[in-house]
Input
Amino acid sequence: MPELPEVEVVRHGLHPAVSGATIDAVEVLDERSLKRHDGPAEDFIERLTGARLRGAVRRGKFLWVPIEPFASGRDSATDAPAEALVAHLGMSGQVLLRDPSAEAAALTRIRFSLTHPVHGALRVDFVDQRIFGSMAVDALLPTRDGAAAGYGLPLASIPSQVAHIARDPLDPAFDERAFLRRLQGKRTTVKRALLDQTLVSGIGNIYADEALWAARVHYDQPTETLSARKARELLEEVRIVLRRALDEGGTSFDAQYVNVNGASGYFSHSLRAYGQQGKPCPRCERPIVREQFMNRGSHFCPRCQRIR
DNA sequence: CTTTCGCCCTGAGTGC
DNA sequence: TGCACTCAGGGCGAAA
Output
């Protein structure tokens, strides 16, 4: 459920807390939350304990924290990080920045004890009810295009397990022409394409439905029948929807408590289609319909959004 | 190679 | 009150 705007809220809150901080201790309470990590929990803990962190970066729905290279005897200031702590929130993941004395939240899977040069002792809890999310320590590889890998730090290196994820449509290095060309060449339907993170990242079920509604496109429209003009319009509506959610997320952000959680964090007051089944379409008043599609709900206006 | 499908997972909510 | 059942769906590996 956390999509680009929600993950960015987490990144934004995590960034100042981890920049320059050192990990003193790692506690893995549930090893299932390490399914992305290549190795046992002991390896995860060993790689992170004593590590100094540089900041928080995001591409699409993936978040990572580059680890400063250990002093090599050479000029370490010019050394680029070789590894990062990677996080994906999955369906229900949260990253909670807590006071060290606070009690652990329910469903906490991984806990980090940090020392920050300015803020002092901090605790970061990874909470995840459904365990679709996970963390990992992963190698950083150079980006293919040489541009910054994501939003947050000007580092042109990306975790190996994120390398196949496309840039998101708000990324300055997002290649719009390549996206439109690949979209046109696909033999699938338009919502599937929007949810394909190797084509464009950051969009999940909620913002896909919202952007499709705004662009008046039916979710099951075959991509090859989508005009170039309509495809550009749809991409622009994706950007508008994501930016609006980012703005709203930014206003409710509390620096002491980084939280992404279900409906409350989902800017529900501004949703036009998602979860609005039975309610009148804000454009034409015809009731919004919900259909099963790809094992998830698709919400749309049967009058405004037709397959053509 | 491209596209689709099934699985992972569990607390909250609902109905009887 | 308590139990059984349903629901939410992102990403990935395997199948088609």
Remarks:
- Residues 228-251 of chain A form the longest helix (24 residues).
- Residues 251-266 of chain A have pLDDT under 50 and may be disordered.
- DSSP finds six helices and eleven strands in chain A.
